[in-house]
Each structure stands twice: as C-alpha cells, then as structure tokens.
Specification:
alpha/beta
C-alpha cells in the first residue's frame, strides 16, 4: 500500500438513531483511527434516548448534527452531508466497529485511481468475526435481473472468511454500512434518494456512480465489523416491505430503457412467487409486506418517472465515461443458488461476470 504524500480530508459521518449502546461501544475504537486528517460527525435522527447527552459528556470533540425528526437513512445523510466539508465522506453505520488502519488503504486506492467514485472495506460479522457480514461481505454485485448479492454472501448463505477474497476487486456496489465516497461526486450525482427512506439506497447511489463511468472498489486491507440489524432486524415485516419496494424503485430508476420493459414484469412475477412461498411457509406478515410493496410501487410510478428523468440528467452531468457495468453477473443468481445449489461466490461461472470475477 502506497500512502499518499498529501492526506486528503476524510469526514467519518455516523447516522445515529437511539444508538447510545452502539456509540458507547464503537466510538472509542473509532477515535483511535491513525489516519492523520480525519474528522468525526454524528448525525442524530431525532433519537429519544440519551445518545446526544452521552456524546456531549464523553466525546465533546465529535461534532453533532441534530436532525429534528427521524428522516431515515437517505434523507438523514443528505441533510447531514450538506453541512460537512471534506474530500471524502465515510458513511458509517452506528453498529460498526473499525479495525486499526482501516482508512489508509481505501484512501490510498482512491487517490491512485482518479475515477474510483466509491469503495468499501471488508465487512465481517461482529458476533462471528471470522465470518463475512450479510450487508456487504467482500463487495456487492448484481445479476441480470437486478438481484443483489455479495462476494462472500449469496441470499442468506454467508461464507466464513478464510482469505479467499483477499484480492482487491472492482465491484458493482459498496455497502452503506461503511461506504467511502468522493464528497464532490456525492453531491454532483444527487446523493442518496430520499424516497428510499432505508435499504438499497446505497445501491441506487452506486448504480448512478457506475452509470457515470466511475468504478467502485473493494479494499480487503481495510476491515470493519458490523453488528447488522441495528435499526431493523432480519425478519421484520417493515424490513421486508422496504427491501421489496426499494428494489423495484432501484430497477425502475436505473435500468436502461431497452431492458426496462421486459425485466420489470419478470421481477414483479418473481416477487409474487416469493410472497406465496412465504404464505405457504406460514409467514403471512411477509406475504402482506410484499403485497404492500407492490401496491406502493405502482402508486409511486408518476413520481418515479420524474425521478428517472432527473436521474439520467444527473448522470450525464457527472459522466467521465460511458456506463461501467463491471461487477455485473450475466447469469441468474436465483437459478444458480436455489436450483444449481451454488451457495458460494467462488462457485459461480467466471465467464458470466462483466469485468474480472476476482
């Protein structure tokens, strides 16, 4: 790793909501960061616990951005980052513990690659530190129908980290649990989409960054540990609703026009299959959550059409090259996983990846 002679300013911004226990646990190791030009912010989404009192008492040098009401992940960060001046932002979840030396390798990579728009470290599970973590593992990918998966995690199959993904790689999306992004580009490309509230908004941002010709990379020499489910745990119907609704929002906004007309109906049909599978398995809450997600997607179509148009205007204004599809998988991950029983990223067909599989 070549450390740059000039250390650009990095702002680590934690979005907090009722996160006193996480702040108490994870801010002390964060403040041991060795990178020489870093500042710390906590953007508080109208917490009702004593998060802010705790910060003011114990860490007065951490800057607080108080938000009047809970605006979710997207709007919360957009409000906060308008008030933060830096060369790079790090969007860091409140339930993440950082390992020593976690900033240097990412900034070194981004400084050397002027068209790297965003990056992520290796995400391991906090409660099982030898395993990858669901939310990002060793970098995010997408298949031909817009199903998202990770190097180290396909659907709910999470791999142990045995060093099998210790090479840097160009990926399709970086996890919002610990995302590095060029500050100027963040604002130029439109930031996070407020309509998402939470879940998949970072993938939407990354897709725009990729469509503008930038690359997104995974840096294995940087490691963080993510608790996961710190705001909405797995199995929560609200989480199911947001995941299904936002995935439809994501595809409608970002798919090229020639793909939109046939991929959206297929995804809607597959969502219906997932809903009835949940119902057959006795999970009526997820069945109704998926139905509600579809209903709200159709209701939102007029505003989504406007968003899609604005989306491509932002992309054209920020473009440095044609759309970058590296990190895309031309296969069907649901077919590979459920029918061909390929539960590990390393088992997927290398020839179906755009760009190097790594």
């Amino acid at each position: 790793m070549q450390i740059p002679l000039h250390y650009p300013h990095v702002a680590v911004v934690i979005l907090c909501w009722n996160g006193r226990k996480f702040l108490e646990q994870f801010v002390p190791p964060l403040l041991k960061t060795t990178y020489p030009n870093v500042s710390y912010y906590v953007a508080d989404n109208a917490s009702t616990d004593d998060s802010l009192d705790y910060l003011r008492q114990h860490f007065p040098w951490v800057e607080i951005i108080a938000i009047d009401e809970n605006q979710g992940f997207s709007t919360g960060y957009n409000i906060a980052l308008k008030q933060v001046q830096a060369d790079y932002y790090v969007l860091l979840n409140q339930d993440v513990e950082v390992a020593p030396g976690w900033i240097e390798p990412v900034i070194a990579a981004m400084q050397q690659g002027k068209h790297i728009g965003a990056a992520q470290p290796k995400l391991r599970a906090y409660d099982s530190k030898t395993d990858f973590e669901y939310a990002g593992a060793a970098g995010g990918y997408t298949d031909s129908l817009g199903y998202m998966f990770c190097r180290g995690r396909i659907f709910d199959a999470v791999e142990p980290d045995t060093g099998q993904y210790d090479t840097p790689a160009e990926i399709f999306w970086a996890s919002g649990a610990a995302m590095f992004v060029r500050a100027q580009l963040y604002h130029q490309i439109g930031g996070l989409d407020d309509t998402f509230f939470a879940h998949m908004e970072e993938i939407d941002l990354c897709w725009r960054i990729k469509s503008a010709g930038y690359s997104i990379v995974y840096c294995p020499d940087s490691v963080v540990y993510h608790v996961g489910g710190g705001s909405l745990p797995q199995g929560n119907p609200r989480k199911t609703y947001l995941n299904f609704r936002n995935n439809l929002f994501l595809l409608y906004k970002n798919l090229p026009a020639y793909q939109l007309w046939y991929k959206m109906p297929v995804r809607l049909a597959l969502d219906c299959l997932a809903a009835f599978k949940s119902l057959a398995g006795g999970n009526s809450n997820d069945f109704w959550a998926i139905g509600r997600a579809h209903r709200h997607f159709f209701r939102a179509l007029p505003s989504l059409r406007k968003r899609r148009k604005e989306n491509w205007q932002l992309i054209r204004g920020a473009s440095v090259a044609g759309p970058n599809r590296n990190g895309s998988y031309k296969g069907l991950i649901i077919w590979d996983f459920f029918f061909r029983k390929k539960t590990k990223f390393s088992q997927l067909d290398s020839s179906k990846f755009i760009g190097a599989k790594q």
